[in-house]
Amino acid sequence: MTNSRPLYETMDQALQPTADRGWVLIEDGYDPLRESSLESRFAISNGFLGVRGGRATTQGAGRIAPASTYVAGLFDTTGAARAVPALVPAPGWLNMRFFVGDRPLVPHPGDITTHHAALDMRRGLLLTEWLSPDPWELGVCMRTARLVSLSERAIGLQLVQLEMKSGDTEVTLRAVCEGLGAGMAHGALEQDLGVWRTRHSNMGLAMAAAASVEIDGVCAPPEPDGPFEWSWTWTARPGQVVGFVRFVAMGRAASQDPELGIKARTALKAAQSRGWRGVLADHERAWTERWRSSEVEVDGDPAAQTALRFALYHLNGAANPDDEHVSVGARALTGDDYLGHVFWDTEIYLLPFYSLTWPEAARALLMYRFNTLDAARAKAVRLGWRGALYAWESADTGAEASPEQVIAPDRQVVDILDGTQEQHISADVAYAVWQYWQVTGDEQFLLAAGAEILLETARFWASRAEPDADGFRHIRGVIGPDEYHQHIDDNAFTNVMARWNIRRGLDVAALMQARWPGRWTPLSSRLGLDDAELMAWREAADTIATGLDPKTGLYEQFSGYFGLEPIDLSAYAGRSVPMDVVLGRARTQGSQVIKQADVVALLGLLPEAFPGNAALKNFRYYEPRCGQGSSLSAAFHGLVAARLGDGEMALRYFRHTAAIDLTDTKAADAGGVHIAALGGLWMMTVFGFAGLSLHSDGVALDPCLPPGWTRLGFPLQWRGRRIRIAIDQIRNRLEATLEDGAAMTVVVAGARYSLQTGQPLSVPIGAPLPAVDRTLQPSENPS
């Protein structure tokens, strides 16, 4: 790391938020009902460490929960029968307590005169400011900053500046860590170092920390009070300024590592040698690079711009390109909902963003799936099939981590079938692998990992699709994306994705035989894959039932769906609970009400499966039947609406998705941000409004900006190239600039152009298409 001049000379400068307040989310005051949601929204993360945005200042008795810290990949179980792995909280390292004499300065967070929190998304910082309660007549103003370094992911940094406005009395500051090794076995616990191991998974965790205080620019020695506890006592006077700095370094090991504590101390000392200015400067440089590679710019709609910056802030903080043994959970590292488990969300909603803006992170996430491939093989065998069936919920090992039962909203114990029946996950993983290969051309990844994933998931589907006397193969007893309907047959999403997966398996086999026969021979031999099996795959793909009705052009979501009870969802507009709660589980399962995008999701992923006007027909049919019972759903509806030319409807879905984590109408984000919905905002923007599609020889764009958006700009990476796209709705022009890399083909509104460095492309685009007519014609309704 270069020892360049720090950006900030004083702590006061560092504690100032970015001048452009369009990059800063602000929250004032204290509302206990909203605190848990704000902790999720204002979380900081770097893909290895995640810290919720809770208040670091607690009362003397410590009854306020510490800001939760999570370490990616740190899972454990309770050891009970049928226990599932859960993300283990790491020690809370940010806590501070202030005393005037022997009494706490802040007995309750609501007693603070003012509290101002600012999430600086450009710099990856959480900044706070508050004044002490008036009864003390001390007038303490405290300003803080916290970060987890994007350049050195083991490191966390806390800065605190205290300004004494008035008073003349003895003050004590205590720096503490809470929850030390909670739920874990102790290995070592010293003043500045702790080493623990999880009780059942035997993972190792180490934390080293150091704290220092300067009073009027003079370093004050601490009083060690025990492991990770230091205190300073002094006489406060008006105008006095006190600076506090705390570094923390954490390490994780998959098994007991005798050097883990040494490594944490080494990382801590390196950070201390850089000083807080150097650590902050490195961190901000890393964020500057991430924004250069991913920032989406929207003119004409400030709310949409804020929503996209918020989404990209959390997406950039969720991944770690240096760790191929972890993935991004459903709430990333911002909360513990879903126990930190990984779902299809990562491959379908997040990988497109990473593949096209941060391919190193995308590769690491896909390597996690390769490193858990053996667990996927074991699951397939256990259920009676061949190949690889990935876990619906995955943790550290890739073994199925779905709970077998949960408590329903009506307090009934409900069996959970997702772990065995929601099998489209294997096709979802394959989809992400192929998309990454298409975007990057990463031959090393394909040969070392990607091809094997594609082949083993294709093998699963070929064995899973059962031949029948009707001449078709059927996939029975599954759950599609619409989880309101369970144990169904021939779910269109599952079957069409399975067919696609098998065909990509055949493609990669042919590609390796033609280009890398020396790699194909040992791989096919190790997998026991011969020409006869490949021929059987082709027959399987050609005969899988898809549910497509050639007369209407509609896909039946699953066998028998068209015969279910139709329900007019407009009669339930304004409801505050999902439709399965309104109707009850039994009636919901017997109805056409859909939890989330299912056929519409298929439309978004495989538009080529909808020739002619089939896309419009299927969207018209299924969009009104979806109850939007999942945070994942609106993104695909918005994406498809934009592709079909209805920018107004697409924008409504965009705003619906943005509101999930940016409004306080619900408490649904108390357990962490909805990272897949945030990925969906990027997908709607780039694949929907910009009309991006990926091809073997380049990219294509067919824009349809929504009302009010006068300009949209974003960067892309394509096979080692950096491209910048700008769509101007006022001038009706698209501009493409190749910033780095060899010449390539770009297709705009169906016309092909050559894009070269130093020669920006500027082409006219058509005016926005008229809105989609959502009225369903009688002939299109098979029910």
Account of the 3D structure:
- Mean pLDDT is 92; it is low at 1-5, 59-66 and 768-783.
- Strand 30 (721-728) and strand 31 form a beta hairpin.
- The N and C termini lie far apart (65 Å).
- The longest helix has 35 residues, at 260-294.
- It is built from 20 helices and 34 strands.
SSE blueprint and pairings:
Blueprint: H1 11-14, E1 24-28, H2 35-41, E2 44-45, E3 49-51, E4 69-76, E5 86-90, E6 96-100, E7 103-104, E8 114-120, E9 125-131, E10 140-148, E11 155-164, E12 169-175, E13 184-189, E14 193-198, E15 204-215, E16 218-220, E17 223-226, E18 229-236, E19 241-253, H3 260-294, E20 297-299, H4 302-318, H5 345-357, H6 359-371, H7 373-382, E21 405-407, E22 413-415, H8 418-421, H9 425-440, H10 443-464, E23 466-467, E24 473-474, H11 492-515, H12 517-527, H13 531-543, E25 548-549, E26 554-555, H14 579-583, H15 585-589, H16 599-605, H17 614-622, H18 633-643, H19 647-662, H20 675-689, E27 693-695, E28 698-701, E29 711-718, E30 721-728, E31 733-740, E32 744-748, E33 751-755, E34 761-764
Parallel strand pairs: 28-32
Antiparallel strand pairs: 1-8, 2-3, 3-4, 4-5, 6-7, 6-12, 8-9, 9-10, 10-11, 11-19, 12-18, 13-14, 14-15, 15-16, 15-19, 17-18, 20-29, 21-22, 23-24, 25-26, 27-28, 29-30, 30-31, 31-34, 32-33
